[in-house]
Amino acid sequence: MKTDELRDAYLDFFVGKGCIRRPSDVLVPNDPTVLFTPAGMNQFKNEFLGIGKLEFTKATTCQKCLRTGDIGNVGVTAYHHTFFEMLGNFSFGDYFKREAIHWAWEFLTDKKWLGLDPNRLTVTVYLDDDEAFEIWEKEIGLDRSRISREDEYENFWPAGAPTDGPDGVCGPCSEIYYHPPTGGKEVEIWNLVFTQFNRVGSPPDNLKPLPMKNIDTGMGLERTAAVLQGVESNFEIDSLRPLCDTVGDVLGVKYDFSGEHGRAMRRIADHVRAVTMCVHENVLPDNKEQGYVVRQLLRRAVLEAYLIGKQEPVLHKLVPKVVEMLGKPYPELKESVGSVQSAIQEEEDAFLDTIERGLNRFQRCLDDAKSTGIITGKDAFQLHTTDGFLYELTDALAARHNLKVDRMGFEQLMEEHGIISNAGKQKSVMAEGPLDAIRKTSGGTEFVGYESSSCEAKVVGIIAEKQLVEEVTEVGHRDLIAVVLDKTAFYGESGGQVGDTGTLTADGIEFTVQDTQKDGDLWLHIGHLKQGTLKVGQSLKCEVDDERRHAIRRAHSATHIMHYALRTTLGDNATQRGSKVQQDELRFDFAQKKPLSPEELCRIEDIVNTHIAEGSAVTTKLMAIEEAREVGAMALFGEKYPDKVRVVSIGEFSKELCGGTHLANSGQVGMFKIVAEEPVAKGVRRLVAYTGEKAMAEMRNKETLLRDIMSELKVGSADEVLRKLESLQNELKETKRKLSEQMRQSIGDDVSNLLAEAEKVDGVALVAHFVPNVDKDVLRDYADRLRKKAPAAVILATDIDGRVALLAGVSTDLIKTKGMNASNCVKAAAKLVQGGGGGRPDLAEAGGKDPSRIDEALKAGLENFRSQLSS
Ligand code: SER
Predict the structure, then answer these.
(1) What is the arithmetic mean of pLDDT over 723-728?
(2) Of 3.40.630.10, 2.40.30.130, 3.10.450.590, 2.40.10.220, which CATH number belongs to 434-538?
(3) In terms of C-beta density within 10 A (0-12 exposed, 13-18 middle, 19 or more buried), how is residue 391 classed?
C-alpha cells in the first residue's frame, strides 16, 4: 500500500466510525508551550480540558509534526525522523478504551483495511491497567504472552507524567508493535493514550480522574507504510526513497542504503524535507527559537554534503522532489517552491562561507592538538560560537586527522552558556490560565466589528494584575486592566492588523481601551478605568475610535493592492513573509534578495495609485477553505485558517484570505506613498508605505524641507538647489586647497626655526614641538621635513577633540649610525598622557587621553632621545 493510500485509508476508516476529519495544524502552533507541533493531540488541548464549546466529540487527523529530541538517531535507526506525519483519532468524552482498542485492531488486521497478520503484532499496557489488559486478552483474543505491562516511562503519556509531571491531563497508554518476518527489530506503530486523569501536584494521590474520559491515539505514517511495504526502513518507502535517490543525484554519489554515505544521505533527505516544510510555513533560518532549529537542521545537512565532497550549495535543488513527494496531502507546497529554494540557497551560501573562513581557526586548533591527540572542549566551543562550526563538523574534520574532540568539555561549556535547543520539548502539556476559566463559564466573544463600530455588550471577565476579579474601581493610575465582553465591535490584533482603541461606557462608568488583543475566541479590551466601578455582568456601550479605525482600513486595503503590485512587478517568488497594518501606515515583508531599484519602487507606486484611482469595489465573502483555494485567493502559509474563511476581493485583481477590516472601495485609500525600502533578514526585504492623510503629510513635510533648503541656500526655485550646492562645493574645495598651501608654507618656516633653535647632542638636533588642533597628517608633514632637512630626532604632539596624538620621527641615517629609535621615544611619551602606541624606528605614532600633560610627554620624549644618544 502506498503512503498516500495509507493516509486516506486511515482517515476514511475513522470517518466511518463517526470521527470528524480535521485538517493538520500548522507546524508552529499558536501555543507558547511548544516550539513545533509535536503530536496530533496538540491542536485539541482545549477539547481535552473541556474548555469552550465542543463542536464535535470525535475527530481524526493526519498531523504534520516536528521533533528534534532524537536527532542523533535520524538516518542511523530505521524509523527516526525530525519531520513526520502522525495519524490520529481522538475522543473528547465520547468513545473510550474499548472502542479505541477494537478499532485499532480492526484497522490493522481486517483484510478490508491493512490486513496485517495478527501473529506479527504484540501490545503493551500500563502496569496496573487491568481494564486494557482484559480487553486485549478477552475481547481481542490475544494470548497473555503477547501482552506486556510496562512502567510509566514506557506506557504513560506524557512519559513519566505521574512522578515527574507536568501537571495537567494525562493517561496510561497501550502500544502496538509489529514484528517483521525478516526477524528484524520490532517497531512501535501505534500508541493509544487513555487520557483519563488530571495530574495535580506530586505523588501519591496526584492523579484525579477526569469527568470526561478522552482518547488520543497516534500512528506513525512513515513507520506503518514501511511495515506495509515490507521494507526495512522508513527511508525505503515510496514517499522517501525517491528523495534519497535525488540526494544522490545532486551530490553526484549513488545512494546505497548500506553504502559508505547511506546514513549521511538519509540525514540530508530528512533534514531538507523538514526545512522545506518549515520555510514553506514562513519559519526561516534564524538565531532564535524555531528559526534556530531550522538553521541547525539545514546546517547539519549542508555539513553532511560538504563532508561527502560538495563544496557548493546544492541542497536547495531537493525542494521540488520534497514537494512532489508530499504534494498530494499538501498541494499548497507547490506555490512556494521558488521562494523556499532561494531561502535555503541563501543559508547554504552563508554557511559554506562560514566553513571556509572557520577552517583557518580549525587549522590552528589542529596544530595545538597534535601533541595531545585531542581538540579541547574550549576550542570546539569557540569554533561553534565564533565560527558557526557545528560540533559534528569539528569532530568529522578532526577524525580525518586521527584526532578526537573533548565532547564532554564542549557540552559543559555549551550548557554553561545556555546554548541548548529545546525543539519540540513539552514544557507544560496542558496548563490552564485565567482566560480558560472565563472560556469555560461564558464561551467566546462575538465579534460584530465588520458591520458596525459600536454595540451593546456585557462584561464576562475582568483581569487586573494578572488575576481574575469580580470587580474593579476607579484605578486610573494602576496597571492596565483587561476586560472581556460577550460581544464586541473592537478588532483584536491579528493577521498583522493592530487592535482597535476606543471606550467602554455606562452610566457613571468610563473605560478607555488602549489596545485590543485576542486570545483564541476571547477578545481582551486593555486599558484604564477612568471612572466608576466595573463589575462582571455589567452592560456597556462599546465604541471604537472610528477615525483611527478608518485610517487602519485605508492601510489594510492598500496592503492588498500593494501585494498585488509587488507580485506583478517582481514575480510570484516575492511571497509574503509578514505584515503590519496600523493607522495610515503599512509594513510588508516579502522574499527578495536584492534591494528594489528606484524604477521598481515607482512602478509599484504607480500600479497601486492607478488601482486606487479606479475606485474598485472591496467585497468580502465567507466561503469554505477549499472553495477559497479554488478561486485562487492568496493565503499566508503557516497560518491556521478556520473551515469557513473570509475572502477579501478588490475589483477583479486581488483576492486574499483575510480577517481584517477593509474599505468599501479602493478609492477611499486616497493616496499611497512608499517611504522606505530596507532589508529585514537574509533574503527578506521590507516596504514601508503611508496612505491617506499620513501620505499627504509626508509629502508636505518633504515640501517644507525643500522650501527650508531653498531659503537657506537663498535660491528662488527648486531647480536651482542642485546648481547652488555644486557651486558651494567647488568653493569649499578651493578654500581647502588654499588653506593647505598656506599651511605647508608655514610648516616650512616653522621647520627652519625649530632646527635653528634645537638642542644639539652629538650633532643631532633634538626637537619637541606642540601644534594645536591639527590632524595627524600635519604632524607627519612636520616630522618628515625636519628629519630630512638635518640629522634630527623629533617628538611632536597635537590635541584634537579632547585627545592627544603623538608622533616621533628620526632621520634614517641615525638608526644605523647611532641606534636611534622613534618607536621607543613615542612609547615613553605616551605613558604620560595615558596612552600607548608604537611603529617603525624611523616613524612612530601614539594616542593618549590626557591633553593636560602634553608638555610633560614632550619632555619625556626628548629625555628618551637623549638617553638613546648617551647609551
Ligand atoms: N500523543 C501521543 C503520542 O504522541 C499519541 O498520539 O504518542
Answers:
(1) 94
(2) 2.40.30.130
(3) middle
